[in-house]
């Protein structure tokens, strides 16, 4: 689209002087939230309750995903699949203790609450939200960056294009990221929530999104531009490993590992790469 090239010229020239809007905080913070600023999440080995199923998670958040899709053009199926993957159906420590359902880390522009958690490094900084809805909205706004801008020209029911585009743009480190998203979408029929739009509706939505992008685009440091916002943990299967032993090592259930890796049985092989992100 010709207008995208013109848009980027304007965007680049304006981005250096435009601040990032802080997410509105709704309601008084809970005692847990009051003590979490620059705090540390409980260890993942504390055997905290893990009870939410994928089906229950989808039922809880599908309307939010649809609302975000209608405003930003991100397929609801993509948003739900990313949330399922990054939060382990809402059971991760980040989701339960920080309302962070997309594993989004701090950036130089983030002014909200933060928490430290071991990931790539012992004290990686992650964003904290007052509620899950803020996490879903911040995920949409987080994608308003130059590296993801081309995705917003895709149809909002093109989940395959979005999955591949996110991987190409470097959203996550996992080489199977697009495949995992597509697998989750088709496993749970998430594409039923994606709504097609007419050409006129698409053009109107693009104008709104690109205008918002120009207004909201944050400045990313070179380090932030070079690194993905989400680090996915991968386990290489060693001799003697079983799904049960791997699940214990990462405090996941065997069912979690099967879903994350689209496994139908218990069989795994030495050298196989398994996603064990929470």
Number-wise, the strands total 5
Radius of gyration: 19 Å
Number of distinct helices: 12
Q: Report how far the terminal alpha carbons are from each other.
A: 38 Å
Helices and strands, in order, run as HHEHHHEEHHHHHEHHE
Strand content: 5-15%
Polypeptide structure, described:
With 278 residues, the chain is mainly alpha-helical. The chain folds into 2 domains: 2-15 and 54-96 and 131-227, Lysozyme (Orthogonal Bundle); 233-278, LysM domain (Membrane-bound Lytic Murein Transglycosylase D, Chain A), CATH 3.10.350. It is 45% helix and 6% strand. It has a 3-stranded mixed β-sheet, with no helix packed on it. Strands 4-5 form a two-stranded antiparallel ribbon.
Outline:
This protein is mainly alpha-helical.
Keywords:
single chain, 278 residues, mainly alpha, Lysozyme, Membrane-bound Lytic Murein Transglycosylase D, Chain A, 2 domains, three-stranded mixed beta sheet, two-stranded antiparallel sheet, 12 helices, 5 strands, 45% helix
Describe the protein's topology.
Elements: H1 2-15, H2 31-34, E1 39-40, H3 54-72, H4 76-87, H5 93-98, E2 114-117, E3 124-127, H6 132-142, H7 159-168, H8 177-187, H9 199-216, H10 222-226, E4 234-236, H11 243-249, H12 254-261, E5 273-275
Parallel strand pairs: 1-2
Antiparallel strand pairs: 2-3, 4-5
